[in-house]
Write a structure and sequence with these properties.
Shape: elongated
Number of helices: 20
Bound molecules: adenosine-5'-triphosphate
Structural class: alpha/beta
CATH architecture of the largest domain: Up-down Bundle
Order of helices and strands: HHHHHHHHHHHEEEHEEHEHHHHEHEEEHH
Length: 595
């Protein structure tokens, strides 16, 4: 329970900027509720007018004739109903407006924070879970603010306002009618305490389910090719059932609440009804006051049945709020505090000095790599799978932080540069090409949205992508589908190369750009490599050694360490791991130990 109020406190602090709207919304809810219970008072006053006529309560206010008293009550009734409607309109407008603003702010803030988080954060959880938090959890909060917040305010006003009327009219009956109130409130909090972990569980389960769905839809080709549909359907069923079960436990708890509350209400109502009736009969209590008390007991106690729903909404919303703030509180390991800038023109010299990095989960990584890549050179990283090639690239991009050693760009330690300053000088064609849904033009221009068509076409030509783009009926305006689904693998590779080239960074990094493509694309990339290497530093991770024979330096990695380096001829002459792998790949295999 306390954690829910903590979450609420946090939410209120977050919503500081909306303090005026919140106060306005609360004020409108309060006024609306006061108007809402006023007609019951008027009924009592009307009964009093009819029974007591010239000696009635209204007569004492100066309206002597019973007719003028009734007319006055009619006008008052009109004003009260009109006021109630007006303030209902206003509080709806304010609460809903607030809910829209807050949900949008929170979603944007959480998204912006999540975007800054380290790659390891994304590797350690299913993306669907994040999407669930950004969508479902934000929506829960919206639902609470749309209705729940107003309901809480109005229940409080009801108790206070009706309580005051009761004590004025008959303190004895007030006591009797109010006996169930603490019980009901205690019951609501008891229920809330029990329900809280159940709702946390519901949110958890929905996250798992969304994660599974998103993963499966993304991996649908794999599922189909392994004919694993039945197995996946069973897993989705299990997750979906777990969600149903978690909800069922929460529902069982919330459903028990209302019948219990109703019995409490009955006690209060009966007490007012019987004791008040007897007092009215004996003349101790005014008939009108008796009417008011009987009506108001209902108005007091019935809304409390709604308390269960409100607490329900509140709990769900606070479970979601906690998840959102947890994301917002997730610290970013990669410090972006560098303030140095590189002096122009950036040459693109990269130096690694005794760099160590170990992944905590797999103990893979790199150990003590020192390497100088002079500006303008092409360096190839080769080595067996898992040797640490991609890890080196991630360290250079500062997706990872070295545990020891340092990396330099143009002589400046890269952690002294802001991430923006560092990354704008590095262009990456990554292992898994990611294209965005949209037009070819926007994908190529992703790094420089302001690029002209001429520049886009030049980059496409350099990446040997222009021929196929030009052959498409809609050319650069062709929509390529999610992740570029309407293009071939080779075309996707070429587009991502064009995208990197258009960025025109002094350092170009190609991570296995040639391993997953057809021979023609490989040849095309090889041709463009020779062309694009001109005037910039190129770091290539290659599996096909034929693509990098012209590299200035070929670095062979094994188990995270450099074991050989030199140009193609030098490495062949060394007759070590590179030479043996070269023989395997060119068909002169006498030794099959892989590089
Ligand atoms: N995110 C990660 N978390 C934990 N361990 C990792 C992670 N990424 C890579 N590793 C481990 O670190 C080692 C080096 O991986 P890396 O991806 O750098 O190899 P690579 O040389 O690029 O391999 P490949 O050529 O197959 O892509 C491997 O043993 C791998 O299991």
């Amino acid at each position: 329970m306390s954690s829910s109020f903590k979450a609420l406190g946090r939410l209120l602090r977050y919503a500081r900027g909306y303090r005026r709207t919140i106060s306005g919304a609360i004020a409108c809810s309060v006024i609306n509720k006061l108007f809402d219970i006023a007609p019951e008072l008027l009924i009592g006053v009307a009964i009093d007018v009819v029974v007591n006529q010239e000696t009635s309560f209204v007569a004492q206010l100066g309206f002597e004739s019973p007719r003028s008293q009734i007319m006055m009550l009619g006008i008052l009734t009109f004003v009260i109903w009109a006021g109630e409607s007006l303030f209902e309109y206003l509080y709806q407008l304010m609460w809903r407006g607030l809910s829209q603003r807050l949900q949008s702010d929170l979603r944007q803030d959480v998204y912006q924070h999540v975007q800054q988080l380290d790659m390891s954060f994304f590797e350690s959880r299913p993306s669907g879970q994040l999407v669930a938090t950004l969508n479902d959890d934000v929506n829960q909060l919206e639902r609470f603010l749309d209705g729940g917040a107003n309901a809480i305010v109005q229940v409080l006003v009801t108790v206070l306002a009706i309580g005051t009327v009761f004590f004025v009219l008959s303190p004895l009956i007030a006591l009797l009618a109010f006996v169930p109130v603490p019980l009901i409130i205690a019951g609501a909090f008891y229920f809330q305490r029990k329900a809280s972990p159940l709702y946390a569980d519901v949110r958890e389960k929905v996250g798992v389910l969304s994660g599974r769905l998103a993963n499966n839809i993304a991996g649908i080709a794999t599922i189909k090719s392994f004919t694993a549909e039945a197995r996946e359907a069973a897993r989705v069923r299990a997750d979906s059932e777990a969600y149903v079960e978690a909800n069922r436990r929460a529902i069982r708890m919330s459903s028990a609440f209302i019948p219990v509350i109703r019995m409490g209400i009955l006690t209060g109502f009966l007490a007012t009804f019987l004791v008040g009736g007897l007092q009215a009969l004996s003349g101790e209590l005014n008939v009108g006051a008796y009417g008011v008390l009987v009506f108001l007991t209902q108005r007091l106690l019935w809304p409390m049945t709604g308390l269960a729903n409100v607490v329900d909404l509140f709990e769900r919303a606070m479970a979601s709020t906690r998840r959102l703030f947890n994301l917002l509180d997730t610290p970013c390991q990669t410090q972006d505090q560098g303030t140095q800038t590189l002096s122009a023109p950036v040459r693109g010299e990269v130096i690694l000095s005794d760099v160590h990095f170990r992944y905590s989960r797999t103990h893979g990584g790199i150990k003590g790599v020192s390497l100088t890549i002079p500006a303008g050179q092409m360096v190839a990283l080769v080595g067996t799978t898992g040797a640490g090639k991609s890890t080196l690239i991630k360290l250079l991009l500062r997706f990872l932080q070295p545990q020891k050693g340092a990396l330099y760009l143009d002589g400046v330690p890269i952690d002294q540069l802001s991430l923006h300053e560092l990354r704008r000088h590095l262009a990456l064609v990554s292992q898994d090409v990611y294209l965005f849904e949209g037009r070819i033009r926007d994908n190529i221009a992703y790094g420089r949205p302001e690029a002209s068509d001429e520049e886009i076409i030049r980059a496409a030509r350099q990446a040997e992508a222009w021929d196929f783009i030009n052959a498409l009926p809609e050319g650069l305006d062709t929509l390529i589908g999610e992740r570029g689904a309407r293009l071939s693998g080779g075309q996707r590779q070429r587009l991502s190369l064009a995208r990197a080239l258009l960025k025109d960074a002094p350092v170009l990094i190609l991570d296995e750009a040639t391993s997953a493509v057809d021979n023609e694309t490989e040849a095309a990339i090889q041709r463009s490599l020779a062309h694009i290497a001109h005037g910039r530093t190129v770091i290539v991770i290659a599996h096909r050694l034929s693509t990098i024979v012209n590299a200035d330096n070929i670095v062979v990695l094994e188990h995270g360490e450099i074991v050989e380096q030199g140009d193609h001829q030098a490495l062949l002459a060394l007759n070590g791991r590179y030479a043996s792998q070269w023989r395997v790949q060119t068909g002169h295999a006498s030794d099959v130990s892989g590089v």
